[in-house]
């Protein structure tokens, strides 16, 4: 959960995204996107539809007692349009432009397929 404060990850993510690259994250990985600011000063995830491990899933696994913040809430506070599957622990993926996110470990396959498809399209 130290991803949000990693200036190194923020810089790399910003550079990839601003150079027409694809950014993808799964489960708690979107925590690395919380503080990514673009060169125009806007947060990368602001006004973007995305997903991550949900608060409901954290509570069901009793992780909410171990994790220092609620990821879903942090993403929403940064202006993200957070979405989640109706059923916890099922595959769920959101793509918004060149940003692809998966809700949980069950989403790895679908997130990877969407990301690869987008990479092929982006780098023709």
**Mean pLDDT across every amino acid position:** 94
Largest sheet: 3 strands, mixed
Shape descriptor: globular
Element string (H = helix, E = strand) = HEEHHEEEH
β content, as a range? 5-15%
Structural class: alpha/beta
**Total number of β-strand segments?**
5
Radius of gyration: 14 Å
Count the DSSP helices: 4
Q: Work out the helicity level.
A: 25-40%
The order of strands across the largest sheet is: 1-5-4
In angstroms, what separates the terminal alpha carbons?
Answer: 35 Å
Q: Low-confidence spans: pLDDT under 50, at least 5 residues? A: none
In short:
With 124 residues, the chain is an alpha/beta fold.
List its salient traits.
124 residues; alpha/beta; 5 strands; 32% helix; two-stranded parallel ribbon
What does this structure look like?
It is a single chain. The strands form 2 sheets. A 3-stranded mixed beta sheet has the order 1-5-4. A two-stranded parallel ribbon has the order 2-3. The chain has 124 residues and is an alpha/beta fold. It has 4 helices and 5 strands. 32% of the residues lie in helices and 13% in strands. It is globular.
SSE order and pairing:
Layout: H1 7-18, E1 23-26, E2 49-50, H2 55-60, H3 71-77, E3 81-82, E4 93-96, E5 99-102, H4 108-122
Parallel strand pairs: 1-5, 2-3
Antiparallel strand pairs: 4-5
């Amino acid at each position: 959960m130290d991803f949000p404060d990693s200036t190194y990850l923020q810089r790399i993510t910003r550079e990839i995204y601003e150079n027409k690259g694809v950014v993808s994250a799964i489960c708690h990985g979107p925590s690395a996107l919380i503080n990514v600011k673009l060169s125009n000063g806007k947060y990368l995830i602001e006004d973007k539809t995305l997903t991550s491990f949900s608060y409901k899933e954290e509570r069901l696994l009793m992780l909410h007692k171990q994790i220092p913040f609620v990821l879903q809430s942090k993403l929403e506070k940064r202006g993200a349009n957070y979405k989640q599957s109706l059923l916890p622990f099922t595959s769920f993926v959101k793509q918004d432009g060149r940003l692809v996110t998966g809700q949980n470990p069950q989403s790895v396959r679908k997130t990877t397929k969407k990301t690869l498809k987008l990479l092929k399209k982006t780098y023709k």
